[in-house]
Amino acid sequence: MGLIDWTVAPNTALPVRISRLDSKPMFKADKTYWVVGMSRALGLALADWMIDAGVKTLILTSRWPGISTDWLTNHARKGVKVVVLPCDVADEAALHAAHAQIIRRHPRCHGPFEIYQYLK
Fold first, then answer.
1. Beta-carbon neighbour count of residue 14 at 10 Å?
2. What is the pLDDT along the chain (120 residues), one digit of tens a residue?
3. Please, are residues 113 and 119 in contact by the beta-carbon 8 Å criterion?
4. Residue 53 CB neighbours (<10 A)
5. Of 32, 60, 30, whose CA–CA distance to 47 is shortest?
6. 108 in the Ramachandran plot: left (φ > 0), alpha (ψ -120 to 50) or beta?
7. Rounded to two decimals, what is the model's pTM?
């Protein structure tokens, strides 16, 4: 066991490496990412960011997914497969059915995200 001395003389410069969160690949192009909820503007902004960061297969699940065909077409032109899958995650059977469909038809699911927004 060692001892760490955290004291530093005043005005001593310490080496620091600063890097952006997205300076390294965050997502794998050969995996599927499943976003549950957030199929409106904020969720689509997150999806855009994920796609820009390397996601090639994205599943968007929501009770009421109102995603424009223009948004979907735009990403399809870039080689991104975005699948909109209506599902109420409060319904366990529906959630299992959605999961079964995802693992049957798409590359391995590498990152499920459940995100919801409540504004009052």
1. 5
2. 667 777 888 888 888 888 887 777 889 999 999 998 878 888 899 999 999 999 999 999 988 888 999 999 999 999 999 999 999 888 999 989 999 999 999 988 887 777 666 666
3. no
4. 13
5. 60
6. beta
7. 0.75
In the block, residue with structure tokens 């995802």? 102
- Amino acid at position 41, single letter: A
In order of 5, 35, 105, 116, the CA distances from 55 in angstroms are 43, 12, 17, 20
End-to-end CA distance of the chain: 52
Any bridge partners for residue 32, and if so which?
A: 57, 109
Distance CA 30, CA 27 (A): 9
Structure tokens at 61: 């699940």
Region class of 115: left (phi > 0), else alpha (psi between -120 and 50), else beta: beta
DSSP 53-113: TT--EEEEEESS----HHHHHHHHHTT-EEEEEE--TTSHHHHHHHHHHHHHHSS-EEEEE
Positive or negative, the CA dihedral 41, 89, 120, 113 is negative
